[in-house]
Design a protein that fits this description.
Ribosomal Protein S8, Chain: A, domain 1; seven-stranded mixed sheet; three-stranded antiparallel sheet; Mal/L-sulfo/L-lacto_DH-like_sf; alpha+beta; Mal/L-sulf/L-lact_DH-like_NADP; Mal/L-sulf/L-lact_DH-like_ah; Lactate dehydrogenase; 11 helices; 3 domains
Length: about 325
């Protein structure tokens, strides 16, 4: 499907790998369900570095498939961070990169700490306001460990990612109060929305709310600046494409890598040994639930809701792909 959009074999492999990992991690809104989005025909992109210094670079993605430009940006940041301690790569003319954790984990796999932030278009109202100004503005941080799972932080700075609202509707579940407001600032919840009306909700000024009240709102605003002002791709209503920043810390430049991992393992063990609060089964680390989901889905397979599966099959049909033959 992705190759039919004009992608090379390598580009298609990157896109599919990122989406499959999204599904394996239980992030269905950013998983294989999104395949039809990447099947749309587009012109060949010519990515190039337009500005750089020893520890920074700006990559013009030329509207390449988001995952392709994000992988290249992280590679650049890692190359520059090695031996220097820290480096970053900002991206202009970027498209949707989907799963930020994937790129943070690229750094983890090279014994580095990866930090990914992305600025998106307006879907989030400022704290105390009603008009969408900022995006979901997600971030991810990947930290290597020794014997334990890596620590992987990955979240939108809104109550949920925009795609999670659709996932909820596709699963037939009600919208929790506190996620959304309409243009007048009234809460939108329960069965107020459906798969058929969600697009109209966004188009008429419906908005997500920032997580964590004013604190999450503050993080959201800063990410808008990092992804849209630092590289001049625009912030708020001036946002153009998805602006993102890859930052990498080379652990070996600070401390022996094995010693670092041992210290992280000790922290993890201490956190896990904390007495469990009533109402909880255990204490989890950031990314632990997703690691477990990946192990389970590798055994049991990736679930796809009926509507999304039908959309995938219809897209295959439009592209002249015999999906049934592939699955046999």
């Amino acid at each position: 499907m992705v190759k039919r959009s004009g992608a090379s074999d390598e580009e298609a492999e990157i896109v599919v790998d990122v989406l499959v990992y999204g599904s394996l991690w239980g992030i269905d809104s950013h998983g294989v369900r999104a395949l039809p989005v990447f099947a749309k025909r587009r012109a060949r992109a010519e990515m190039k570095v337009v500005k750089e210094a020893p520890s920074m670079a700006i990559l013009d993605a030329d509207h390449a498939w988001g995952p392709v430009s994000a992988v290249r940006a992280m590679e650049i940041a890692m190359e520059k961070a090695e031996g220097r301690g820290i480096a970053c790569c900002s991206v202009v003319n970027g498209e949707w990169i989907t799963n930020l954790f994937y790129y943070a984990m690229m750094a983890v796999g090279n014994d580095m700490i990866g930090v990914v932030t992305a600025r998106e278009g307006p879907v989030c109202a400022p704290w105390g306001g009603t008009k969408p100004v900022m995006g979901t503005n997600p971030m991810s941080v990947g930290v290597p460990a020794g014997k334990e799972y890596p620590i992987v932080l990955d979240f939108a700075t809104t109550m949920v990612a925009q795609g999670h609202v659709m996932t909820r509707l596709l699963e037939g579940r009600p919208i929790p109060e506190g996620w959304l407001i309409d243009r007048q600032g009234s809460p939108v919840k329960g069965r107020d929305l459906s798969v058929e009306t969600i697009d109209e909700f966004w188009e008429t000024g419906g908005s997500l709310l920032p997580f964590g009240t004013y604190k999450g709102y503050g993080i959201n605003v800063v990410i808008d600046v990092l992804g849209g002002a630092l590289n001049l791709t625009g912030t708020g209503s001036r946002a153009r494409g998805q602006g993102f920043l890859m930052t990498v810390l080379d652990i070996a430049s600070f401390s022996p890598v094995d010693d670092f991992k041992e210290e992280v393992d000790r922290l993890i063990a201490e956190i896990k040994s904390s007495p469990v609060m009533p109402g909880f089964d255990e204490v989890l680390l950031p990314g632990e639930r997703e690691h477990r989901a990946m192990e389970r889905r590798r055994r049991e397979g990736i679930p796809v809701d009926e509507r999304s599966w039908r959309n995938i099959l219809e897209t295959c049909g439009k592209l002249g792909i015999d999906a049934k033959a592939i699955m046999e």
